[in-house]
Model the fold of this input.
Amino acid sequence: MVAPVRNTPAADVAATPDKTFLRTRTKLARGGLTLAMLCSAAGAGLMVGQYFLIAQVLRDAVMHGAGLPQLMPRLWLLLPIIAARAVLLWAGEATSIGAGARVRLAVRGELARHLLALGPVALAGERTGALTVALIDSVEALDAYVARYLPARAASALVPLTVAVAVLAADKLSALILVLAAPLIPVFMVLIGRGAEKLNQAQWARLARLAAHFLEALQLLTTLKLFNASKREAETIARVSDEYRQATMAVLRVAFLSSLALEFFATVGVALVAIAVGFRLLWGEIGFGEGLFVLLLAPEFFQPLRGLGTQYHARMAAVTAAERIAALLARSSLPLVMAAEGPPSTHGGADTSRRRGWRPFGRHDDRGCDAAPVAAPSLAFDHVSLTYPDNRVALTDVTFHLPPGRVTALIGPSGAGKSSIAALLLRFVAPTAGTIRVDGEDLATIDPATWRRCVAWVPQRPHLFHGTIAANIRLGGPDADDAPVARAAALVGADAFIAKLPAGYGHIIGERGAGLSGGQARLVALARAALRDAPLLILDEPTASLDAETEHLVARAVRRLGEGRTVLIIAHRPEAVRHADATLRLQAGRVMQEATAPCA
Amino acid sequence: MRLMLRLLTLSRPAAGWLALGSLAALVALVANVALLAVSGWFVTAMGVAGTAGRSMNYFTPASLIRLFAILRTLGRYAERVITHEATFRLIASLRVWLFQRIEPLSPPALAAWRSGDLGARLRTDLDRLETVYLRLISPLAVALVGGAVLVAWLSRYSAPLAWLEAALLLLAGLLGPLAVARLSAPAARRQVTEEALLNAATVDLVQGMPDCLAFGAEAAQLAAFDAHSRALVRAQVQNGRAGALAQSLLMLCAALALWGAIVLAVPLLRTGAIDGADLVMLALACLGGFEAVASLPGALQGLGGVLESARRIFAIADAAASPAPGGTARSRSSAKEGMAPFKPRAFEGDARSQSPAAEGEAQSALRATRGPAACDIAASGLTYTYPGAPAPALRDFGLTLRQGQRIAITGPIGCGKSTLILLLTGLVAPDGGNVSLGGCPAGDLDGETRRGCFAVAPQEPGLFSGTIRYALRLADREADDAALWRALRTAQLDQEVAALPDGLDTWIGEAGLTLSGGQAKRLSVARALLRPAPVLILDEPTEGLDAAAAEALLQAVVANLAGRSLLLITHGKAGLALMDAVVAVPGAQASPPQTA
Done:
């Protein structure tokens, strides 16, 4: 069974990568967030002005019997203030949203490039679903942190401060009440919230698992029915949901105490201000205008703090997501590859130019394998060993030779290391010891991208990309127009089934090659390889799990494709490689036998 | 609107809790507005009394302030606890309801859910519906009632004031957000499309990585990925900024309500209709009233999505409820009749011997009346075409399998071999032809009795996330570990499981160990072996195994049949020598089958 691949040492060393990760990535948002903060500060200032004017107007109306004519000038002045506040509120939100978008875009691009640089071998232990979630959902979750939590945090410092200063100017005692009540809120939130919040998160995670189980039950309904278990499952869903509810509510009743505390202090703060102001008004210690002004401002003092409380959930989710992304970004590509050279797409240092200058197979121009004809190469494995970072030994001291222009079969039971040889030849990984030579030259000194242009590969389970069949074949030659694509398909015998499709070469391949059978997918991959027209052809289990008819079709395609090329066919059944010129047998990471006669 | 009503009907099981939760929210809301209004009245009255040098009764308002402060705090707490309780109850009933609706669907109709895209969408849809009460219905109800109470109270002082407040509340809470939602509807739709496109691009990037690297297509792949990522983010930004418009409008309306209240109430003060304390109280109540609609802009922005989700879920449920073409209608109607004429004789396989589990009352009764295991199968002229398929998957197929016989069914991929399982077990009804089990027409049996004859290892292993023990026990809930190990040994999986640190307790599937295709297949074979049924059907059990291992697996299975019949469906040659007969299914368009 495929055990999940452990993290590379680099990931273990990097302590709390999420903290630095969030800090460095939010730098991108700094400009936008500063602007949002300015909007928030200006809005707070305007709000103080607004309530000051309203308190004045109400005082004059109540205490001095002023009528609308006297009040109207100030009331008119209020309207532009209100409008400006609304505009500033929107502008702050809009810039925060923009800042969050910038961060998401950058992190997603960075993660995608990093994953490609890591390559399929380093990522072998990750389920593709988990990587997809990281690229989409985890990146989306960062938005809550950047676009909502960070602005809320800034507002929760700025606005209460502005309000406190204004209240202090009007009434010292009220300011004192507010300033004393305010710190109690975060203190209690921390005291009650920390533990409960964690439990709360665990409960939501359980809810997600429950939902996953429910969807699984729907997806596997046929299996459930075959075992007469589908009616039982409805009861299970009801019972498990109910148990979950009871367990969760026990936790939530405590978790909500933190918001109860927050609410309590905010409400009591306002009530205390009201009562303190009221009595001193009765005793004539402060003016009515000042008192009213303070009363109007008091709720606004607590508002941003409550807002911060509601964003706390969002922050937790974002931090979890950031941890996942940071862990992926902290993974270095296989050390072996690093030693030989940098990851293919990110490093373009000075010494790669030398490698780019590599001329394959005696070519005298610099067009590499892009321009035919290229002579079929000779390949040699010279005491090659491969040990994966988890100490899994894939190959031990393997030595063999692929003669130019010949078909060599590599057979052996599953797990013998056949796919590792393909991975080595495709430069997804480099040998731990030994050398692979191409026409006498060390493969490690050749730029992987240049090298891969000389290789056509037909994997066991080819991935068909979302798009037309033509586009999928064109992976082998991006600039090819329709005629060469059709020729390549005809060469491997894929044209027959393509012609039967309603849209022919324009047939859109949906999710996971939906609409095509495994054999048809392999024919498309063979057409891809045919279009590639590379001097080295690697075929991984070209005929496995195919019915006789398709197997025949594929075998014929392989023979046609192999002409004039160096071919390596990987298979676990000897009968699949009857037409090979030579057969290598691989057993437990070693070449056991090199037969020169076809094995039949 | 009809959709909303249907949603409400669905929530009937939790109706009491829902009502209680909204009531608590209402109390908290009213307490908050009252707190603000009474505070304003109190401060003003005290100020007036202070200036005039009069004394006043300050005990009542001061204690009212305290009361409202406590009511507000406790109301909020009660609201959160109760609405969550209600939501969880709603989740449970919604899921059971949907499962029961979908359960009778035939496999071809179910195939749609197997696709990841629909599955993921169903998940989002359910998530939205499950929180629709918490996020939308309750806030809407509270806003309507709370707003109405406030407006009614204001109208006692001044009708124009009440009208103004009502209009502004309506604008900020309902009309504004709905207008914004309509305005941003194209962007919202684009966002949904772009999400799906980015998802496809991501799957291509991750799953197609080896192909992409080998063919040097990194740059093109990244460019496509970036383009989709950028398009999605652009749609999200447009949507988000439109949503911010509604928030901003809310603030504007609240401030205008306060402003308007002053403008309308000051003349009343001059006429003596209200006093100074009333003026401040009314002004603050008008301002505070906007708490009633504060959560609506956010809630209504998601309304389109919620309705879309509800529509999809109801469509699924309705499709399931209408009599589907295919086997469902037939097997259900016979299930209703209850009394099935056929009583298959119970089977006591070796895996079963120490656990006499109840498979349902009918079956245990049968076990008592009838003796040894037997379920002879006779099928003739079976023809089936999948809905929408141009040609039949299986045409005029016949088969006879007496109890204890071993028959292999071979044929090219896609010739309908697997469809045969669905036809025999009654999960789909044939377009033509007959199946009889134990001498009785299978159409007369209810589905569960019929499937009691079969233990199937289907082509798709169909394993649940969970421990290996859990996965196996689907076949027999009371099987002990010894029985599980026996089945694993026969399926040639015991050594691999024994080598795992957690053995039978190893978690597989989501968040667990990933099984290779061959391992999943053998686990599914072991599960079928555990099921005490007279006919064992194995669909391509040796896929992913080399010839020697395949032969060993089938030999072990045959050696442990203990009187069961075996139907082996395969396109390979392994194990054919162990069979009593080999039936070839020709391609769908070819001639009738011959028995070898």
Chain A touches chain B through 143 residues (CB under 8 Å). The longest strand of chain A covers residues 393-402. DSSP finds 19 helices and twelve strands in chain A. The radius of gyration of chain A is 35 Å.
